Amino acid sequence: MSVHKEAKRITTHTLQSMKEQGEKITMLTGYDFSMATILDQSGVDVILVGDSASNVMAGHETTLPITLDQMIYHASSVIRAVKRALVVVDLPFGSYQGNSRLALDSAVRIMKESGAHAVKMEGGAEISDSIIRVLSAGIPVMGHLGLTPQSIYKFGTYVVRAKHEEEANKLISDAKLLEEIGCFSIVLEKIPATLGKTVSEMLTIPTIGIGGGKDTDGQVLVTHDLLGITKDFHPRFLRRYADLFTAMTEAMQAYIRDVRSGDFPGPDEQY
Fold it and tell me: 18, 93, 109, 165: which could join 23 in a potential S-S bond, CB 3.0 to 4.6 Å?
């Protein structure tokens, strides 16, 4: 079912109201105009222009190589399609860590050049200066705690985070800090479900889980994973809602057969 053209725009305020009313928030990734058109018309609340574009669109092993210019390109493509959803854009690795002035410049460029509605930044206390500086310019910031893929070489692995008390306590204190300094929402990635529940109940701002359990205020998945376009990625938190890899391969093979046999184009498909 497509959403009516005049559907009300989702804002950060909408997400806050949804949490207060116990209504779950839906978020999916988008990187291009065609997919963003479908995402927006499907009725999803938030479209994340994720630095996962580094993996999904560019074929890199990690999210680290994608540049600010490339993120702006993807964000601009998505914004042109969107009438309703809130569009959040990842600040890529190296564009905000350790330098609050650089963080502000990066966030301003994303907002001005793409027309996006908010940015997302990975990390807690260690990047609080950068978050505060971005917020001071009136740019909404979504936080991201737990497994933070931009720090993958520090972790050394994509395993579940915050299973031990010390790391769980740090995550709780980081979540409180992000709320206090003014983040409008926090993504919780790959943490124990009990911790996802604890943090979500403790905060007044909405949490969005990806492998964070069912008690977060919303959920996010990478669209290409949900649709089964990516084939060899099987994390526990992923539910595939389609097998488009097979469907698309079969359609392309049918086209190849029809061209080779002379069946395509037929009489009705020529001028």
Answer: 18
How many structural domains is the chain composed of?
1
pLDDT digits (tens, 9 = 90+) for 214-258: 999 999 999 999 999 998 888 999 999 999 999 999 999 999 999
In a domain, 255, yes or no: no
Which residue, 59, 54, 124, is CA-closest to 90?
A: 54
Q: Return left, alpha or beta for 138; rule: phi > 0 is left, psi -120 to 50 is alpha, else beta.
A: left
Q: Biggest alpha carbon distance in the chain?
A: 71
Q: Which position among 113, 189, 201, 250 bears the catalytic label? A: 189
Return the CATH number at 54: 3.20.20.60
- Look up 189 and say whether it is catalytic: yes
Model pLDDT, residue 149: 87
Tell me whether residue 235 is in a domain: no
Residue 97 dihedral angles phi and psi, to the nearest 5°: -70, 130
Task: Assess if residue 265 is contained within a domain.
Answer: no
C-alpha span between 157 and 107 (Å, rounded): 28
| Closest-CA residue to 89 (of 59, 105, 111, 57) | 111
Domain of residue 95 covers: 12-226
Minimal CA–CA distance to 11: which of 113, 106, 118, 107?
A: 118
Report which DSSP code applies to 4. Answer: P
Tell whether 4 is covered by a domain: no
